[in-house]
Amino acid sequence: MRITQGAFSFLPDLTDDQIRAQVQYCIDNKWAVSLEVTDDPHPRNTYWDMWGHPMFDNPDAAALMMELNACRKLYGDRYIRVVAFDASHGWESVKLSFIVNRPAEEPGYRLERQEAAGRMIRYTTRPYAADKPAGARYG
Amino acid sequence: MPAPALAETETPQAAAPAAIDLREEFETSGVKDVLAELDRDLIGLAPVKRRIRETAALLLVERARRRMGLAHETPTLHMSFTGNPGTGKTTVALRMADLLHRLGYIRKGHLVSVTRDDLVGQYIGHTAPKTKEILKKAMGGVLFIDEAYYLYRPENERDYGQEAIEILLQVMENQRDDLVVILAGYAQRMDRFFESNPGFRSRIAHHIDFPDYSDDELLRIAEQMLDQQNYLFDTKATPAMADYITRRRAQPHFANARSIRNALDRARLRQANRLFESAKGPLDAKALSTISAEDITASRVFALKPGKGASK
Question: Which residues in chain B have their CB less than 8 angstroms from residue A14's CB?
Answer without folding.
Answer: 3, 6
